[in-house]
Amino acid sequence: MSAGPMLTGRRIVRMNGAGNQILVLDLRGAKPLPSPAEARAIHRAPGLAYDQMMVIGDPREGAKIPFVTIYNSDGTLAGACGNGSRCVADRLARDTGAERLAFETEAGLIACERLDEWIWRVDMGPPLLGWRDIPLAHEVADTSRVALIWPEGDPAAELGRAATVSMGNPHAVFFVPDLFRIDAARLGPRVEIHPMFPAKANVTFAQINARDDVASRVWERGVGLTLACGSAACATLVAAARAGLMEREGKVRLPGGELSIAWRASDDHVLMTGPVEFEDEFVLSDSLFEAAL
Question: Domains in the chain, start-ordered, CATH in brackets?
Answer without folding.
Answer: 4-125+277-292 (3.10.310.10), 155-268 (3.10.310.10)
